[in-house]
Amino acid sequence: MYVSDQDRAKAFYTQKLGFAERMDAPMGPDSRWVELAPGSGETSLVLMKPSEAMPGYDLARSMIGTWATFIFAVADINATYKELTARGVEFQDAPSQQPWGWWATIKDPDGNVIGLHSD
Description:
Elements: H1 6-16, E1 20-28, E2 31-37, E3 45-47, H2 57-63, E4 67-73, H3 77-86, E5 90-98, E6 101-107, E7 113-118
Parallel strand pairs: 4-7
Antiparallel strand pairs: 1-2, 2-3, 5-6, 6-7
């Protein structure tokens, strides 16, 4: 996930969403490898700050504040909505029943939109 400020994004994902830190290591003069994981899952999320030295810098920068390329599956979307709203997480769309299940979207501090789904 491309972000403009790794510290701010890390605080959001750990303090508001409850992710665990797996790694926070330097990658260069202006960037770090910040890897977080939701719960006890094996999947992790890397919060990457684009740097001018990286290939595809302009594309990476343009992806900040857009739709994420993943969604989070949650057990109970209405309970998750209440819990995350109480923690100050901004919902772009409140939970609603759709033909494929329950759906909602949240925004991180950069405006990246992430889908939440439950059956």
